[in-house]
Structure formats: C-alpha cells, structure tokens
C-alpha cells in the first residue's frame, strides 16, 4: 500500500502543469521597403505563370547538362555540406538530451555489502547501515561476532527509483528545451543555406571554367593571327617596305598575346582545382557536352515580393530560430528566481540474508522531496536575466541585418538583370564593328592605301572587345545565379508547386 502511495505521488508530480515564463514572441518588423527598388537600372518584373526562384528546381534552372552533373556530384560528395549535415545531427542529439530532463530518469540498483562494526556498536543494539533509503539495524541476524567482540553485518538490496528529478513547476527546463529545439532548427536551416550556397558556387565556378576555356581558345587564335602578321611585317621590313616601328609594334602584340595565353592557361587550372574542391573529387572525364557559353544557359524566374524572403531564405529562417531560442532563454532566466522542487524516490527489497530478499515483509521505499529557494545570490540571477535579454536584443539586430542583407542581394541581382542585357548587346555590336574595322584595315593595307600599323591597331581592338564580351557574359551569369540564390533558389532539385513549398522547406536533415 505504501509503495502504491509512493508511485501515486510521483505520478501527481509528473501531472503538474507548471507555468511558462517565456515572453510572448512577436516577429520584428522587416526593416526594408515593401517593394523592390525602381529606377533606370531595374526592369518591370512579370510573373507570367513562371515558378518563383525557391520553387524552381536547380535542375530546371541550370539548362547545361554538364553543370547539372557537377551539381549532383557536389551534393553527394562535398565536405562542407557533409559537415553541415553532421552539425544538424549533433544539435538534434543536444535537443534530445535537454528534453529528457523533463522526465524522471529511472534506474535499478543491486547492492551487496559486508561491514565490520566495533564491539560497542553491537552492545548498543543500534547503528547500522542503509542503502538507497532502505536500512537495517546493527546486530542480529546476518552478522556474526569476531575476535575482540567486533561485529560483521551483511546487507543485500535491490531497488528501482529516480534520483533528484526536478518538477518543472515554473518552466525552467521547458524553456531550456524550447531553446535547444530552436537551436536545432536553426542549425537545420543553416544546412539548407550551405546546400543552396554550394549549388550556386558550383555554377559560378563552372561558368568561370568554361569562360576561361573560351578566352584561351580566343587568345590562341589571336596569337596565331599576330604571329602571321609579324612574319609578314618582317618580310616587308627586309624588303624595305615596312619600318622598324612596324616590326616592334607587331612583336608587342605577339608578346601580349603570349602573356594572355599563359594567364588563361593558369586560370583554367585554378578553375578546375576550385571545381574539384566543390565536387569533392576529380572532374568526371565523361561529362556530357556543355552548352555554348553565349547560349541560353539559365531559365527565367520572377523576383516576387520582399515579404517572400522571410519564407524563402533559410538564413533568415535560421536567424529567427536563434531569436526564438534567445526568447526561450529569457524564460529560463526568469524561472531561476523561483523555488525548485526536486524529488528522489526509490522502492525495492532489502534483507540481511541473500535468500531473504524476496520474503514477505522485505519491501523498502523512500520518498525525499527537496525545495530549494534562492535567497542571497549577490546579483547572479539578475545578471543572468540581463544577459539573456541583451542576447535577445543582439539576435533581433542580427535577424534584421539578415533581412537587409537579403534585400540588398536581391536588389543588386535585379539591377544586374535590368542592365546586363543592354550591356551585352552593345558589347556584341562593338565586336562586330571591330571585326569590320579590322577587315577594312587589312583590305586597305593589301591595296597599298594604308600602313600596317592600322591593321595591328584593328587587331588589338578586336581582341580586346572579344575578351570583354566573354567577361561581361560571365558576370551576367554570375549575377543571375546570385539572384537565384538570394531568392532562396537551389534547395529543390526539381520544381515544386507553390503550395508545396512550405512543406518542402521543412523536411528534416537526412541521416
């Protein structure tokens, strides 16, 4: 009957609802405008039924099959992403550890002991030893006299119970558990951020690699043209037609092209090394043929509204989870001002004889409630609460800054989208005009109307314009990929419907 009362007391303690001292949370207002910037650099955005960036799978966004293969390899083998996944698992384990403190921890204990007592203990008939709340008196059965009148006592017991479990009446442990949960969720969102960043980094590294390859091929062709011109001028100089100035100018162009060739050769090697680091291994030799770098490499998507960033950007969601964790820690700091009630309870059987452990009447139990009330802490609790509130203020600022950073990233991407089309069109026309200029200069030289310096100048201008066109194209691709990332794109492999986005962004990290 007494054991039944003991377990009833523990059950009642578990059923106590307690209270929460966590402050009511209100999401801070986004410190950005309600619409994207307007002006000459920005074009009018239309949705036209296209999926948003966060809904557009990277496999549909990247149209180049070689790039698609590289992204898949990176997601399988990249070490940064693997570390991010492990961090999620670690924080989930921390959350489970903290959550376990909400419940009593039960254990069983078996004890066998023999103790020697002086003779006066035996004569007094008192004294004894106990274990886990079950004791036995000295003297009597289970012991025996030894030389000099001393007494040896035996004790055996088996108990089941809980030790120092805190009944969370004021929500301190629940607040800490909530904070641990939010930290875990923030780490999961950070993993998503690493995933998105990796997809974008692979794309920009691939585009740089392909662009440098195109620049190297252009430089090789230009160098061959320069060397042909140099041989022609050398022959003309030997015949007394060209001057030494013409020869030196031709040599200058050849040397410049040779230097450019070495530069692009080195950059291609560095690009390949960067790709291998991102892929977590060597670049496959059986990559499918890539698209023309000047072709349609990327799919279109609308920018949406600034308010969408709060749902689309995992770094913003991570910042808000950390904000919620700081808010929960304030609740834990508040609860520390109130009494804590700890319960220790055990029940079992004990005997002085091993074969009497389970005899009738051998049952034992103990129930020890403890109340701890802080009185003099010399400002420790107040300082902890102030620290928790200051951490909350810092996390609010960090959350707001993450929104402002995201807004800037998107605004820069939209400015690039609104201007690079015109810039590339103008640069392409410049290349065409320089090509015509070079052909006319060569024709005039062949007809004896002009000298060869004009031809060399036209060659140099054409080469510079062609290089600039490729470089501008690379920048355009980089900015569009950056806009895709800034709007939360890159998490999904395949496009999802808008209604499925919220569910798709809450899947737990893989184990």
From TrEMBL:
Protein family (similarity comment): Belongs to the outer membrane factor (OMF) (TC 1.B.17) family.
Region (Disordered): 114-146
Source organism: Azomonas macrocytogenes (Azotobacter macrocytogenes)
Cellular localization per UniProt: Cell outer membrane
PANTHER family the record matches: CATION EFFLUX SYSTEM PROTEIN CUSC, OUTER MEMBRANE CATION EFFLUX PROTEIN
A Pfam family recorded for this sequence: OEP
InterPro entries membership: MdtP/NodT-like, OMP_efflux
Transmembrane is among the record's keywords: yes
Coarse class of the protein's main subcellular location: membrane
Protein name: Multidrug efflux system outer membrane protein
Keywords, alphabetical: Cell outer membrane, Lipoprotein, Membrane, Palmitate, Transmembrane, Transmembrane beta strand
GO MF entry, a single one: efflux transmembrane transporter activity
Annotated Gly residues bias: 123-146
Keyword Disulfide bond: no
GO CC entries: cell outer membrane
Membrane topology qualifier: Lipid-anchor
